[in-house]
Amino acid sequence: MLWNTLNQTVELGWDFYLPVILFVVLIAMAVPVWAAIGSAAIVMLVMSGDLPLSLVGESLFTGIDAFALTAVPLFILTGDVLVRTGLSRKFLDVAEALTCFAKGGFGSATVLVCGMFAAISGSDAAGAAAVGRMTINRLVESGYPRPYACALVAAGACTGILIPPSIAYIIIGLVLGISASTLFLAALIPGLAILVSILITNIIMNRLYAYEGGGLMTMGEWLANLGKALKSGWYAFIVPGIIFYGIFSGRLTPTEAGATAVVVTIIMGFIMRTLTLADFPSMLVSSAKVNGVILPIIAFSAPLAEALAIMGVPQGFVASITSLTDDPYLLILLMIGILIAAGCVMETTPNIVILAPILKPLADNIGMNEIQFCIMMITALGVGFITPPLGLNLFVVSGITGESILKIAARAIPFVLTMLIVVLLIAYVPAVSTTLLPEIYQ
């Protein structure tokens, strides 16, 4: 019924169906997402005749001709430098000292260091790889089953796109014309809420199954451990401090904060003598590979978005959905369901560039704040990182450990459920994502 209503509203023909079928087939054949999006866009434009092909090249250029996108490779490079210099291990030392006073301390430390890494790199896959290599074996030695240890790291690394600065918020801000700095500020409470939900879930699992042993510490012992860790690793927090202060004080744009963070991290690496000039080629190549996956998707999404807009697909989608129900609570649930389903089968970047322009009009129609919509969308998509069949973090930790993806996914179910609770909270309580914003956004 929904599809019939959409078809009647927009009068869809083969100029729409064939590109969609082509896109699905190419994705199923493991063709790179940017190539699948580009092929579908070109076929749609050729068949519809709505936009001359001569303008596609210009559209590709304008799709990535944005100063804000410069922040993406900078944050990715900062994360790579952070790992090479060994500063990420200082985060782990401090996180472990913070949580060592109770049972389940190292599991909680693992989640905290995922959040710390997220506050610098803005990438979940990078966080899963970096933190996984440092912690999974130690988690197993502490008493955690290997599949659960992998699931814990995979869930914690979801904060990579949820805690600012986040590459996902830069991209959705570009797609919808919203300031990345505003989205970073709005995402602070929701991102921390996801982090806390994962921490609480791990604590509960420890209570139920007694994964991690260890005795309680006295306050004096805890303070001594924490003081020792901070004394030896306080300088590692200079980098996230620069990023957070620069962006949230308004003194630096996200791009400027990313550039400053890269320079400071490199200087610290040279001072610590853990970074040499010989490390630069591999770091730059590694960062370029990640960036080379993201930018082509954004570029090819521009002509696709133009074609969909000309055909009236977003407006038709809104009309068809609201013809079934006008209950905002049900419509929000429907949007969340679409986002979670999309996150299960496709990465965040293509989901943002394809779904944001389609779902945004529906959110506007029910009166949802545009900032709240962006936070809800990214958080719901973040759940997809630990859900099969294409949970990216599951594949990353599986690649590191050799553990079965299905076994990891099964142990990740409690984290998925608690994350969904936070998604619903964001969706139905606007204050969660707008409290820190100026009054104009509330």
Overall 3D form: globular
Q: What helical percentage do the residues reach? A: over 70%
List the secondary-structure elements in sequence, H or E. Answer: HHHHHHHHHHHHHHHHHHHHHHH
pLDDT < 50 runs, ≥5 residues: 5-10
| Residue share in β-strands | under 5%
Kindly state the number of beta strands: 0
The N- to C-terminal Cα distance equals 36 Å
**Pairing-aware structural class of the strands and helices?**
mainly alpha
Query: What count of domains describes the coordinates?
Result: 1
Mean pLDDT: 83
Largest sheet: none
How many helices? The count is 23
Family: Belongs to the TRAP transporter large permease family.
Membrane topology: Multi-pass membrane protein
Transmembrane segments: 20-47, 59-78, 109-136, 148-172, 178-200, 234-252, 258-278, 290-311, 331-359, 371-392, 412-437
GO molecular function, one term: transmembrane transporter activity
Structure description:
- With 442 residues, the chain is mostly helical.
- It has one domain.
- The protein has 23 helices and no strands.
- It has helices spanning 2-10, 14-28, 33-48, 56-64, 71-85, 87-99, 105-121, 124-141, 146-157, 167-176, 180-209, 219-233, 238-248, 254-272, 280-311, 313-324, 328-345, 348-365, 370-383, 392-401, 405-411, 413-428, 431-434.
- The longest helix has 32 residues, at 280-311.
In short:
The protein has 442 residues and is mainly alpha-helical.
